[in-house]
């Protein structure tokens, strides 16, 4: 591993350079071109801090925990929503095959047809199937739970991202090893 040095730019930032880069022109993150001096002049620059002597960043923190738990909760919520959707109750009236109704209507005698016609003039039976209503209510509760769970997961992901942005500038290096001011 070769020695590294801090090369100042006119903007006030310092770039980390190595002697093997001597004589080249590099661009500072501010956009200004910076001429890297000769090998002899580089050795006169301030040495860059050794990366191994700095305390290591924690590999896992609150941000990562929030992001992981948020993603896990969203995945569980989506899976629950899919299961609830797949198990959605179907009303008995919706399960009747229209072709079977047509076939049975063709088989009715004229007197039986007249009887059903008189019943239809009174109106359809609008009583609610109680079992279907209970199942549909449970379905809506389950979908609501999955929605609240997904929103909770999204909120945790947002909190993890916000913490990451808040801590983003601490100790990070920019392009070409730039150190913060």
Walk me through this protein's architecture:
The longest helix has about 40 residues, at about 130-165. The chain has two domains: about 5-50, no CATH class; about 60-165. The chain is mainly alpha-helical. The protein is rod-shaped, with a radius of gyration of 36 Å. The protein has a three-stranded antiparallel beta sheet, with no helix packed on it. Helix content is about 50%, strand content about 10%. A hairpin with a 5-residue loop joins strand 1 (about 5-10) and strand 2 (about 15).
How do the helices and strands line up, and which of them pair or pack?
Blueprint: E1 5-8, E2 14-17, E3 25-27, E4 33-35, H1 39-42, E5 46-47, H2 62-86, H3 98-106, H4 110-122, H5 130-167
Antiparallel strand pairs: 1-2, 1-5, 3-4
Helix pairs in contact: 2-5
Low-confidence runs of at least 5 consecutive residues:
169-175
Mean of pLDDT: 82
- SSE topology string: EEEEHEHHHH
How many angstroms separate the termini? 25 Å
Total discrete domains: 2
Given the C-alpha coordinates, what overall shape results?
rod-shaped
Radius of gyration (CA) equals 36 Å
Strand order of the largest sheet: 2-1-5
Which percent range fits the helix content?
Answer: 40-55%
**Strand composition percent:** 5-15%
What is the tally of helical segments?
5
| Multimerization state | single chain
